[in-house]
């Protein structure tokens, strides 16, 4: 069983929800960064669906390239016992069996030999096998891997022959189709992948380039810097007990390059740097030349430098590759996200980040400005600052940081059950009278009985503009616990989002609440038959999900969980740090109040949160009262964190700012979205009240000052007294000046110009 990262499980849950017949759309596009484990996520989804249902389905998986991805994906699928993985050749022999996953390379069906495969084969051809599967009432779910490629008329024709009930497209570079009624778009955020430890924290560009090296040869400058960095990584591994990993430098030539460019690179590597083919330290992987490429992706392989082109096999990756030298040749080459993806994977994904700066980043060296501009424009490359040094005056700050090491270890299933029951009982005024409770639910608008309600449209229209003429209709079908198992699974997955429990536990809880068996439990609410219970869950899971969500948040605020399992650590501000910044921001100025030397406003402008930008700028405007400001990280053990309770356990969060005033007072400040100019709430964090209570308790315990800060009409307001209040017009939310005991400055203004 593969242990998925949280974001990976979210993708699996999304796919399981999407596959339900009643789901609103039949096409899903997933954008996932290179290195996020796309194949594992898709296979885990297929595996779980096949294992948990009896659906008469066959999966078809299209891959690009010359066959490498097809073979890799099929090999990985073989490790899942429930998946019948096969090639297109296997499908021509055996057809498309239930529970099968057929991996098809585009070239096999759209290339020169595709015609015979589709129409002219003396034996059963592909179309025949598809038709036979359909005759057996089998339906297809199609996956289109690297969907940005091979989007041709021929490819679309082949895909259409399967008449898929559901279609999933995945890619690192695909755009949002912006047609939610037809295609749903789901994006895996790069920050989630970074936080999981699967990819590097940042890509460091041209660090410590020595432009004063003798000669004008760019090779010497780039390779000298890259080799120094490679040696630093080797040293970092040794000092931190990492064995069996030999860092690899990729030397990428332009796809369209002169014949002698690779010869010049080879000469420099062999004669100047003493990296040769003979000693196994140099490899080359071009279409016309391959040397030392066998097992080059293995972590301990001897090759230190590998010459490649962008057109190297799609899906190829070497997690030990940490450095990329991008060679230019009097031409700009279009940036592709896959290029940087080759060096962003962490070599030991189960271990993740090492919490060592030199080991947790990837490094790019290039003088190709067009390539760099393309990278920054697409957001494919993070532009991190050079390593910033902590100012002496901030080194003495000490706080206690709280952290949850393993959420599953503190998860209390019984407590979750009791909390949810108590929340429902309080909201609905349930009693011990099960019949009365049934009527309460019915009177509250919940659909009761043993029939499943299916809503649909009926009527006719001439143009799409007249679809409003269609009538809403309802169809009633008798529920059956066995026949509706797939639908129930979908509902359980949706409820799991707020219950934080495995599917089996979600089902068990719903049984205790609403399915009256031989033995009544103290948490039983109603008495329903199996079919009534099935209909109740399927008709009302959306309403139940919202009730469970309210209970989760309410219980988290109450803080009913025992916090004995929380780890407490001494926290000091890291001695060095990197922040992302906008390299094109021409008017960058030093931020005097920041704890790090040479931290500039170019880092402030790239923060996605307006309230964070406003806060940093406000603090800098009032530097006469402020000793220093620390912008806290949001993932990692090296940063300051606090615990807060959830329904059945605990979690932790990272307050945004630590501020020390010149009078010695220390403030811990968390920011949240405020209200826009129309009075609409911008705070998307439902756990804000729980985090508010956690910070309040922490501040009281350790005698520090604190506040939650939000923005309204580009002005800042704070709350640090009493209970959480959503409404910002309440007199509880006060102007930020009052938090620090400052008087209003008529010249004070916050500029929101973004460059």
CATH domain class of the largest domain? Alpha Beta
CATH topology of the largest domain: Rossmann fold
What's the rounded overall pLDDT mean? 83
Radius of gyration, Cα only, in angstroms?
29 Å
Principal-axes geometry comes out as flat
The strand line-up of the biggest sheet is 3-4-2-5-6-1-7
Q: Which percent bin holds the helix content? A: 25-40%
Fold and architecture overview:
This protein is α/β, with parallel strands linked by helices. It has 23 helices and 28 strands. The strands form 7 sheets. A 7-stranded parallel beta sheet has the order 3-4-2-5-6-1-7. The chain folds into 4 domains: 6-196, Rossmann fold; 202-384, Rossmann fold (3-Layer(aba) Sandwich); 413-556, no CATH class; 567-739, Trna Endonuclease, Chain: A, domain 1 (3-Layer(aba) Sandwich). Strand 10 and strand 11 form a beta hairpin. Helix 1 packs across helix 2 and helix 15 packs across helix 19.
Topology:
Blueprint: H1 6-18, E1 27-31, H2 38-52, E2 57-63, H3 68-77, E3 84-87, H4 88-94, E4 100-105, H5 106-110, H6 114-120, H7 126-135, E5 139-145, H8 153-160, E6 166-171, E7 183-187, H9 190-196, E8 202-205, H10 218-239, E9 248-253, H11 261-272, E10 282-286, E11 289-291, E12 305-309, E13 321-326, H12 337-344, E14 361-366, H13 369-378, E15 388-389, E16 399-403, H14 407-410, H15 413-428, H16 434-443, E17 451-458, E18 471-478, H17 485-499, H18 503-514, H19 530-558, E19 567-571, E20 576-577, H20 601-604, H21 610-621, E21 626-631, E22 642-645, E23 650-653, E24 657-661, E25 666-675, H22 688-702, E26 705-712, E27 715-719, E28 734-735, H23 736-739
Parallel strand pairs: 1-6, 1-7, 2-4, 2-5, 3-4, 5-6, 8-14, 9-12, 9-13, 10-12, 13-14, 25-26
Antiparallel strand pairs: 10-11, 15-20, 16-19, 17-18, 21-24, 22-23, 24-25, 26-27, 27-28
Helix pairs in contact: 1-2, 15-19, 17-19, 19-22
